[in-house]
Structures are given as structure tokens and as C-alpha cells.
Design goal:
Number of helices: 10
CATH superfamily: Vaccinia Virus protein VP39
CATH architecture: 3-Layer(aba) Sandwich
Largest sheet: 7 strands, mixed
Low-confidence stretches: 8-13
Number of domains: 1
Helix content: 25-40%
Radius of gyration: 18 Å
């Protein structure tokens, strides 16, 4: 996935905005160390400074890390590094692993949780939220149909687990679960009529890259037509987001 960090900050800042709800679950202890796993451009990483003395933000995207470093260059107790969540180089270093809107981009949740468990200190805390089963189903199904209509095959890259499946994985890795639940989060997309267009260009960028621009435009238009009845309210596009939230101790 190739990220456009500027487009992400300007048009999809709702991702970080909704993630602020997670902050209430973080203990306030200036002595603790927090890992922001999948930190993106650092919007929520900056908020974490209220809860600890040291933060490491990691993301697999060099573009996102570069933007995060630029955005937060004046904050001394934050370090950023490019790092794959399935290859974390940490051992019992963190009191909290925090992650917002990241896990659904990662195929191997079993390895992910193994790495997080290994990175946490004894009794460390995992606080995360990501796409739940059924997330963006209307958009994704419409996009898949539109691609097919124009001769292209769409294969989903997302991983949206059920509560039951993710609970089983957590328990298999010996996490003690405090909270785990899913919920609907209808999400307004910026820029009125162009909202879904911008969303598709960001989150289906890798699929569109292989398609000629003229066909891209037709696929996006067809996706809009297929979703308009359910997701357009006359003024704004409302994306059919669903979230899964987890609070668990090592």
C-alpha cells in the first residue's frame, strides 16, 4: 500500500479524530513508555505525550514516518522509525502498546499479537481499535462489482475479524481481556460530492494504480452509483465503518 501522507492528513483526519476516544483507556504515568504501532503521520502520537515520558512511533510506510517526523520535530520525547508490525525489534520494552486503525491492514494477526506480547513489559497493556467484521462492506462490495464490470478483478487486502475470532487469538497468546467489543461508526467523508472519490483514491490506491486513469474514473463513478442510495444523505457521503476495540493486559 502506497500512502499519500498529505491527502491522508487533509482529507482523512477523521481516522485520528475518532482514535482520540481510545486515549481514555491509557493510564496516566509519566514514567511509562508507549509504543504507537502504526503511527501514521503522528497526530495521535502527539496526544500520547500527556500520558508518558517516552514514545516510539512505528509505521511500515516511509512516507508516513517522514511526515510524522516533520510534524513533530519539536517534541523531544518522541522517536519515529520505519518498522513492520510483523517484525518488531522490541523485547519487554513497553508499558502500553497503542494502535488505532492499523490491524485490519495486517494479514497475520497471530504473528502480530505474538510480537506485541513480546514487546510488552510484564502486565503491559494493549489498547487498540481497528476495522471489525463488516467494516466498509457496502463500499468494498460496490468497488469489487465496478472493477469486475470493467474487466478487473478486485481482491480484498483488508482483514476485519469478528469479536469471537479475535478474542480467541488474544487468549491463545495469553492476553487477559478487559474489554473487547465491536460497534457501528457511520463516518462522514469530507468534501461533499467528492468525499467518496477521495476516499477510494486513498484506500484503494494500490488497486487503481494498475488501471488506466480513464477507467479509474469510470470505476469510481460506478462505485458511487452503486452506493449512493445507502451512503449519500443528500449533502455528504457516510462511510459504513464498523470498529473492533480491545483493552487487554499481558
Amino acid at each position: 500500500m502506497e500512502w499519500n501522507a498529505v491527502l491522508y492528513d487533509n482529507k482523512h483526519d477523521f481516522v485520528a479524530e475518532y482514535g482520540k476516544d481510545l486515549l481514555e483507556f491509557i493510564p496516566k504515568d509519566k514514567k511509562q513508555v508507549i509504543l504507537d504501532l502504526g503511527c501514521g503521520t503522528g497526530t495521535l502520537t502527539a496526544k500520547l505525550t500527556d500520558f508518558c515520558n517516552q514514545i516510539i512511533g512505528v509505521d511500515s510506510s516511509q512516507t508516513m514516518i517522514a511526515k510524522a517526523r516533520e510534524n513533530l520535530k519539536n517534541i523531544e520525547n518522541i522517536k519515529f522509525q520505519v518498522c513492520n508490525a510483523l517484525d518488531l525489534p522490541f523485547e519487554q520494552e513497553f508499558d502500553v502498546v497503542f494502535s488505532n486503525a492499523v490491524f485490519h491492514w495486517i494479514a497475520n494477526h497471530d504473528m502480530l499479537l505474538k510480537n506485541i506480547y513480546y514487546a510488552l513489559k510484564p502486565t503491559g497493556l494493549l489498547i487498540c481499535e481497528f476495522g471489525a467484521n463488516g467494516n466498509i462492506a457496502i463500499i468494498e462490495n460496490a468497488f469489487a462489482k465496478a472493477c469486475k464490470d470493467f474487466g478487473y478483478d478486485y481482491q480484498s487486502k483488508f482483514h476485519f475479524p469478528t469479536v469471537e475470532n479475535f478474542r480467541n487469538l488474544l487468549e491463545n497468546h495469553k492476553f487477559m481481556i478487559n474489554k473487547i467489543y465491536d460497534f457501528d461508526r457511520p463516518t462522514v467523508l469530507k468534501d461533499g460530492q467528492q468525499g467518496l472519490n477521495h476516499w477510494i483514491k486513498q484506500f484503494f490506491a494500490s488497486e487503481l494504480k494498475a488501471i488506466p486513469e480513464t477507467i479509474q474514473a469510470m470505476i469510481i463513478r460506478k462505485t458511487e452509483d452503486l452506493t449512493r442510495k445507502k451512503l449519500w444523505n443528500g449533502k455528504e457521503w457516510i462511510a459504513d465503518y464498523r470498529r473492533l476495540r480491545v483493552i487487554a493486559n499481558k
